[in-house]
Amino acid sequence: xxxxxxxxxxxxxxxxxxxxxxxxxxxxxxxxxxxxxxxxxxxxxxxxxxxxxxxxxxxxxxxxxxxxxxxxxxxxxx
Length: 78
Known about the structure:
CATH superfamily: Glutaredoxin
Strand order of the largest sheet: 1-2
Shape: globular
Largest sheet: 2 strands, parallel
């Protein structure tokens, strides 16, 4: 997920997952003011809105329901 620390939709997305589950998500901070920022990766991926999900090589801008993300990523629950 590409996002920004100040983005309210990114925060909502994190909360939908919960702290433990979101820790398993590769998160890329796009705002250069953050100490963990990678704006180079955001530019390379052509991210123009937050959050943006990259799943199987495709970009999905906007906040998504967990069921949508599961379907897009072929996630199978045990």
